[in-house]
Amino acid sequence: MAENQLKDLEIKIDELVSLCSELNRENQALKADSAGWRDERQGLIDKNELARTKVEAMIDRLRTME
Known about the structure:
By secondary structure, the chain is mainly alpha-helical. Helix content is 97%, strand content 0%.
């Protein structure tokens, strides 16, 4: 009886270790995705700011032509 319980416990521990490994891999992938999205967001913010600055400069030049 005790041997069967020990074997069952060993199987459950192996399953938990496997699940922890899988969750760790998934967590690392999600962190990498998150970093990528943050970088892309910052790039888009920078491009938007550059475009805004250029448009404002064009508007100023047009006003001086009037």
